[in-house]
Amino acid sequence: PGALRVVRCGGSALRGARAVFSADSYLLCASGDFVKVYSVSTEETLRLMGGHADLVTGIQLNPHNHMQLYSASLDGTIKLWDFMDGIPIKTFTVGSKLLALYTPASAEDSVFVVIPKKGERDTFQLVSVKLAKGARQDLEAKELSVVLDGVGASMKHIAFGREGAYVVSVKDVHLQVYFFKRKLLNRFSLSTVKTKGGDNHFSCVVCHPTEDCIATGHADGKIRLWRNFHHRKEYTYSTLHWHHDIVMDLAFSVEGTRLLSGGVESVLVQWHNESSCQKDFLPRLGSPIEYISMSSDGALCCTLHTDNRITIINSNLRFSRSIQGLIKSRDVKTGLVVDPRTKALVLNGEPGHLQFYSLQSDQQLFSLDIVQRQYIHQAGLKQSDLVKVAFSAQGTWLATVEESEEVTDPELQLKLWFYSEETQSFQLNTRINTPHDNHITDMCFRDMDELGDDSLILVTTGRDCVFKVWVMVEDTDPEAQQSVSWSCDFVGSYHNYQATNCCFSEDGSLLAVSFEETVTVWDSLTWDLKCTFCHPPGNIRNICFGRLTCSKYLIGATDYGFLCCWNLLTCALEWSAHLNIVVLQPDPLSEHIAAVSWLSKESSLFVFKPNEPRPIYIQRNLCKEKILLAAFVPRDEPEVISSEKYLWLRKSQPFFLTDTQELMTLSTKSLEERLTPSSKQLAVEESLPVTPFSLLLGKHRHQQAQEAIDLGKPVVHNKQEQASPAVKELLHTPAHVLPSASFLCTIFINSLLISKENKSAEEVADEVEMESEKAEDDSDEEDVTEMEQEDTSHMELLGETTCKLSKSQEKELRKIRKTDYSWISAF
Amino acid sequence: MAAYKPVVVQACPKLGERITQDTLYWRGYKTPVQIKEFGAVNKIDFSPVPPYNYAVTASSRIHIYGRYSQEPIKTFSRFRDAAYCATYRDDGRLLAAGSEDGGIRLFDIGGKAPLRQFEGHTKPVHVVGFLSDKYRIFSGGDDYSSNLWDIPSATEIISYSEHTDYVRCGCASKVNADVFITGSYDHTVKLFDARTKSSVMTIEHGHPVESVLLFPSGGLLVSAGGRYVKVWDVLKGGQLLVSLKNHHKTVTCLCLNSSGQRLLSGSLDRHVKIYSTTSYKVVHSFNYATSILSLALSPEDETIVVGMTNGVLNVKHRKPEEKNDKSQKKRQPAYRTYVKGRTYMPKQEDFCVSKPVKRVLRKYDKLLRSFQSSKALDAVLEPPIMLHTPEVTVAVMQELHRRGTLRSALAGRDEKQVNLLLTFVARRVIEPRFTSVLVTVADIITDIYQPVVGQSAIVDKQFLKLQEAIGKEIDYQEELLEVLGMMDTLFATFTKKRDTCLEENKSNGLTEIIETNRNY
């Protein structure tokens, strides 16, 4: 049990480099410091290859061995991997930051990388690195020879021509082509003058695989095809124009007959024939396209999107599937919310959508369309997006607020969604246009587990200086489609101050609303103002009530760096601390409150109980980024924590979201433990469908446990351990690599049979049968079992380990002897 | 890859009357036929057997009308003075009626002269009825008595003198041949059993009882008097189930529809209200020209006949059901192509080829999908869309504004189109749900077409109209604000905390509307 570690979760940005298709349907992606291996057919993450100390900026297959992969990183190393097994083969240390990696097949034992030029800022050069041959794993690669100077830093700015004969680099409005054989460098420039609002700057470049042709993308959406670039003067180019904004990436098909282009519009365009401008579209891919890559056989292509998504597309431009983890939107306005039903983390996803992200499986459960409007990918548009989300205690109601980006006259909508058991999703119940005249600042449900849904109350606070209470109203019309709808019940205000935060006490009797500098406490039955609290300098930033034993305290954090705790019984300030609190998050399952402070470029975490001013736990320098949001996710089962210092982590786990959209958590486990989460294995077992056989298996296991308890002796785990690896192997192997079911059947059945020295197969069946009969006779045997327990305790006292059958068990065994077992022969 | 999301057209809940199944059902009558009678129509009774003739008692005559006849097919006029309450027997062959002179007459439907005369009441008899065994008649008179008569011998069986005022209404139980009830101006409804000497139950209605009604099951009793219609549970000993106060004048008549699901009440306030007998809520109401005295509904709700105080008989026939033969013919190929294969379960050796579902998009959506802003705006400026679903037009305008292409879509239009646009804006800009968008549109239009003002008389006229509409709206809002100010002073005097909260809320709702409209 080491110290608490800050763990990044939810995957890093996939935007480091173009994805690479391997020859055998794997997809390799640079993801932060890691290289991820996905299966194209099942969308599963197969392997996570870690070893780089910084962002991976380039991945390329080894042109001489298709089972190997080169990766370059900002840490100055190039690594060669066997990606089938996830083993690093070699590490070459180059020394300076590597910004891009190219492995043309023509270069025998060298690769090309982009490195910053020494002594000059923001100038980069393309160098070829000779990879030294040697037996050792770590090698130095210092033989650098500069190929091109003054190149762009992005991997999209350089391309290698057909058979590696030439290399093309673009920067600003200049295109340079270097011919290796002739050692000739041709430079071409476009005019810098912006004509008709066009912007000639190059954004990306690719080369035709078979012809001498270069395709370049431009910032104004044009695509230029260059030919005859061997001549300095007689070069020609033709222009293709469809994109209205910058062309983010281009890709030629394997034969070079088709050209794919993508950009901010999130439309993948396929150009067939450059002369006739015939083109196909794959529109509405969800978010701007960052990279396009083609598989080597040309059957698939994939697009990497800015919001951390990979879309795999068929050769006939049909959407095939998408791989998505935590979608990183530009700005998480909704905060981190935990769905009480699925325990998933809920936050902004695609524009206008709410994503439900499962932390256990690191994948998106589903995406709920809230705004229900076509999102237009265009700069400068006033898009409406989701800004607030609240769940009711049981997760049956979801309230969302969406607003347009206009500052003065926001187009506000409050929507209330009801969870429908039939469709297993949220359905829109009520839509309220303009619930407030100005931006909504906060929203909360009255959390009451004991009382039914009738007592549900929603409170919204707005910058229009009021807070509004919304209640459910039963629709009196029997023919109406829905039985309830929501309407405003009360409007409260306080001296015309802007309402900023609201919070219900744990029992729901009190509502705290902060109005700029003042916290007001209202009775939720009569809506009377009960008392006010104030800690003069600075507006209230966050408020929350204490829970459980600390429910008499109200905590508030102010702009001027004070954390205050008021006692609601005495209406007096209990204690205050000088801390610049950014996030205040109570744990729903305990009294603990987590506060994250931001001071001089580091975030610190304080965990405290409201009844004592001294924090239980302090973690200085949690991370370098500013933490914007936090949430406590209840654990499925309390974690075993040895150290008393970390007891607050027992029931729920904190998650933090930084301003760079990184999701982080705290963990006491070491890295290896965390990588194989036990919950995943559990989940597999639990998700077994209920078949007669699984019931049999379940009973069998249950019975074994029962037996252990009944007899008061340690369980003989022997047979179960024997059985489980085979079964687990079977269940954990992806279906597409399994042999036929008929082949597996015998192994599977054998694994379940009990070896002779323990018990015969028939005996197992006996026990199963016994179990079922036991269940049937449960009611009239209650007194017997009681007696049985007495027996065992007696035995324990004596310290006997022999198994003696009690009378009732003997009786049952006799009963079983009479039953028919002919069905076993079927096995 | 996400599919194209169509433009969201914001549906606003329609204010005012909601169209329900009931509204549709009760609206399905033709324009009424008016027949002039000699005096106030005090009773209308439908024959229980086909062809469902109905007897109308007015003045000193009883007219029998056929289903679609405008003229009476038969008339009983052997009354010296006013006749009352002509009622059919269950088999539709006998008709009994009371009269001003206190006699009760029994007619055969075929004959003219009365078969029997029952003399015994000393004052006018306003209510007569057959018991369900068909051989006895009950009556109630202004002499405060309720009598029971034997038809074959024309003699009085029993006379109850328990009411203390005029007996003006009554009805017999359909399930028990001995039970009948009478309602009187002494505010009570009494339930009599022919086997006992006195009434078995007395229900206090609270107002002079004008009409009573028993449900076919005999368990519920409805009484009408004053402005109230009250429903009583007879089996629970006359417990009040519900009291309905939906009329603002005396309720004069009650009637059940053929299914027993709806209760109709007619009143002097010229309304007929229809209640659901499960929720006792008004589901529909009819309006008539004058005060209503009597009301009857034919079997299967084919005809509603209402009698007025001025002697007008208002007859409404049900419209024949429209048969959709054409649509049925059209549906046949649809079955073959769409429904037939639905239930087919693919077998193991079958190779399934799934056809992508073709999504149907509206024209403007298709144009918006391909970013043709101007054409999309043209598509929603088509008269049918613009007139009937202005919310679609406004939604598309909003979407264009969101995409930043509204200005270019509005620009470059000719006189006719500008005229069309301005007409729409001037008409709809005052609707609160459209205001925010249309104000922007109006702004842009004036911006774009400012240089050409004065070149076209039509466009100039429309601009003036727009100005006028906005000016009117501003005046109106100012007035509303004044009213709000007055109301606020009133609310300020309220002392009860809870009430002020509620009112505060309401007034806030008003200000919201005002603020949205104040933008120009």
Automatic annotation (TrEMBL), chain A:
WD repeats lie at residues 49-91. Keywords: Nucleus, Repeat, Ribosome biogenesis, rRNA processing, Transcription, WD repeat. The keyword Repeat applies. One of its GO terms (molecular function) is RNA binding. The keyword Nucleus applies. One of its GO terms (biological process) is rRNA processing. Residues 336-661 form the WD repeat-containing protein 75 second beta-propeller domain. SUPFAM superfamilies: WD40 repeat-like. Residues 763-790 have a biased composition (Acidic residues). PROSITE patterns: WD_REPEATS_2, WD_REPEATS_REGION. Pfam families: Beta-prop_WDR75_1st, Beta-prop_WDR75_2nd. One of its GO terms (cellular component) is small-subunit processome. It comes from the Eukaryota. Residues 763-798 are annotated as: Disordered. It is found in: Nucleus, Nucleolus. This is WDR75 protein. It comes from Rhagologus leucostigma. The lineage of its organism: Eukaryota, Metazoa, Chordata, Craniata, Vertebrata.
TrEMBL record, chain B:
The lineage of its organism: Eukaryota, Metazoa, Chordata, Craniata, Vertebrata. Its main location: nucleus. The keyword Cell membrane does not apply. This is U3 small nucleolar RNA-associated protein 15 homolog. GO terms for biological process: positive regulation of transcription by RNA polymerase I; rRNA processing. The keyword rRNA processing applies. It is found in: Nucleus, Nucleolus. Pfam families: UTP15_C, WD40. CDD domains: WD40. It comes from the Eukaryota. Keywords: Nucleus, Repeat, rRNA processing, WD repeat. GO terms for cellular component: nucleolus. Residues 344-490 form the U3 small nucleolar RNA-associated protein 15 C-terminal domain. WD repeats lie at residues 118-159, 244-285. Ribosome biogenesis factor. Involved in nucleolar processing of pre-18S ribosomal RNA. Required for optimal pre-ribosomal RNA transcription by RNA polymerase I. Part of the small subunit (SSU) processome, first precursor of the small eukaryotic ribosomal subunit. During the assembly of the SSU processome in the nucleolus, many ribosome biogenesis factors, an RNA chaperone and ribosomal proteins associate with the nascent pre-rRNA and work in concert to generate RNA folding, modifications, rearrangements and cleavage as well as targeted degradation of pre-ribosomal RNA by the RNA exosome.
